[in-house]
Amino acid sequence: MDTNEEANKGSIWVYIAIATIPLVLVLGNSMLVPILPDMQEKMGISRFQSSLVITLFSISAGLIIPVSGYLSDRFTRKAVIIPSLIVYGAAGVLAVFAAVWNSYPILITARAIQGLGAAGTAPIAMALVGDLYKGGQASKALGLIEASNGTGKVVSPIIGSLLALITWYAPFFAFPIFCVLSLLAVIFLIKEPPREQKADPLRIYLGQIRDILRQKGRWLIPAFFAGSITLFILFGVLFYLSQILEEEPYRIEGVRKGFVLAIPLLGMVITSYTTGAKIKQNGTLMRWLMNIGLTLMTVALAFAIFLNSNLYVFIGLLTLSGIGTGLLLPCLNTLITGSVERDQRGMITSLYNSLRFIGVAFGPPLFGWLMSISHKTIFTTVSSMALLMLILVFFCIKPSGDMPEKS
Description:
Layout: H1 3-9, H2 12-30, H3 36-43, H4 47-74, H5 77-100, H6 104-118, H7 122-132, H8 135-164, H9 171-189, H10 202-244, H11 254-279, H12 283-303, H13 311-337, H14 342-371, H15 375-396
Helix pairs in contact: 2-7, 2-8, 2-9, 3-4, 4-5, 4-6, 4-14, 5-6, 5-7, 5-9, 7-8, 7-14, 8-11, 8-13, 10-13, 10-14, 10-15, 11-13, 12-13, 12-15
């Protein structure tokens, strides 16, 4: 075994360094969710315009992620992650100035550039985990990535709310700081194993990806869309909650609102980490957990159509949906990451993450539009989508026994 690989497997600091990458990424959206109503008021923009602060970030990331995936296969994972964190942090500085200048055009431009940087962070970290770890260690590390992603979602509304006590745009100052910390962790703590060979030239490489999708597309493509729809629902619900909590009859604002937003996400994060630690390469267990998770999401979101007058019950249902998400995503991550050889792993995981970002991108604006119709319309729509994903996953994704490991 390579010395670098041995060092990575034996160090808790490597886990921490890997976990900072998705943490930085998720802060890019979730930390801004609590301040969107304030942004609308202070900048004189509409609800739709404020949702674009989330959407443009996610769309630009989603479009560039496959390019980052190819580059990480062609060169190394760190050669993509490090410049991406630098771009992400630098654009964060521009976003700070845009907020201070009260310039909406500069702000959304900065957010789009941040998305370009985000494309080379967490999606490539997922491929890096597949390079560093095998078997049970890989599923545990992937569960850690999803848990770190979820932890970011839990703490970021609280951090965003706390920073907003200083001034509404204070959360923008946090991005560059977090990027610098993650950058240092990646540079000094992660020793990437040597690459035996680079990815083939682009034409041959794309042909290999096409062959993989032909061979495994029957379950890979449903897995991609299940991850996308799940993130669409999650961020849409967060946007919806952030808007309604400040209205009658709730009138919950500031840090209190941040804590309420964090409750469903806490259920997701605990479940994600536990799931990642338990599934190892057990395909039968993964299939059970994916279907149970989507069933919980479907039932909880369906009950939310009618049970929204009591805030405690409503948040409880959304937490149950979050637990379902925590059962589903680590299983999808493990299946997708382990499905291909190392030289194509960056592109396959990037296609998956690209669709996840697109799901995040369309959540806030579509939920904003659905809010103009009715609460029942929102939750009828998302519970139907969760049911459709349950049917698709049940019939198309059927791992069994111990999954083979890919090097």
